[in-house]
Amino acid sequence: MIAARSIPVVVAPMAGGISTPELVAAVCSAGGFGFLAAGYLSEEALAEQIATTRSLTSEPFGVNLFVPGERSDVDLEPYRRRVEAEADRYGVAAGPPHWDDDQYQAKVELVIAERVPVVSFTFGAPEKSTVDRLHEVGAEVVVTVTTPREARVAAEVGADLLCVQGMEAGGHRAVFDDDERSAGGGPLYGLLAALRMVQAEVDLPVVAAGGLVHGADVAAVLAAGAVAAQLGTAFLVCDEAGTQPAQRSEIASGQRETGVTRAFSGRPARGLVNRFMTEHGPEAPAAYPQLHHLTKPVRGAAGKAGDPEAMSLWAGQTYAQARPLPAAELVSRLVEEARQAVERARGLL
Ligand SMILES: Cc1cc2nc3c(=O)[nH]c(=O)nc-3n(C[C@H](O)[C@H](O)[C@H](O)COP(=O)(O)O)c2cc1C
User: Which reaction does it catalyse (predicted)?
Assistant: First the structure.
């Protein structure tokens, strides 16, 4: 399904209100492909987003789900005290640091019942029985991977396609098991390296994600074997994205470094470096989604106040090159640039 689209550009799922039905519909109607982000959404809210997207486009689109991980029994008290101090500062109460499964099973049932044609998974591989049920209703199953080992696991459960995520990527790293001894939760492979290693490991079509912001980048990953390029940050500043104003202006000013942190959610994720990340990141335990719930009121209050220093400003390494355009216009520029890049490369070979 993804490989058959006329334009090999995918707008990444971006949870937390960024992936709107309008954004997904605009990219799909332009000939690309897009995913709604089911992460953090209730089953009802996801159903509503699917219906709205269907009312905006007759083209197919996908849904992305967070695979629940193991419940960590790490002591959260020291980190809770830090976040409580932040909560005082922003005039809110810290959230309850509970573990939950993000209504995973209910959302799996929903995408099956709704016959969503492409379902992608991150933070792990679904069970083989889930993949089998999705196949029974004709869905294509995508699993996001960061290493050849994860690619092997995804292939074993029957994935049709892999989304290979390089360490350049904005947002959460897709690592299956967050290794707390490593800042990135596992090996930090750059996208081209990851693509090469994954393709050597398994014989499945791959979509490439991480730091792609220009059409020449799209051409590069197609040349490296991908069937499509998945871009998140490049679409963050599109008109249709639900990105908050403070995040848009930080992206536009392009002044911050990006870094990988567990500070906000307990899982490694790449975002613009700010005060919260610098002060708390090194102390943050590997406890997802407990930290996500704990810090949620602080992030929310900071966002409302337009204060970028305690928001999770997820963005990939190339964020400063993101262009604030309508999504369809961005898609057509990416295609044009990719064609030019291919021509240029052809002249060199
Ligand atoms: C704000 C933001 C939110 C994201 N949320 C999700 C998500 O819900 N599910 C997912 O699989 N990936 C998510 N990602 C990661 C993307 O799928 C993709 O790997 C990444 O955007 C690629 O790197 P780029 O941002 O440099 O283009 C998110 C990325 C960003 C920037």
Answer: 3 propionate 3-nitronate + 3 O2 + H2O = 3 3-oxopropanoate + 2 nitrate + nitrite + H2O2 + 3 H(+)
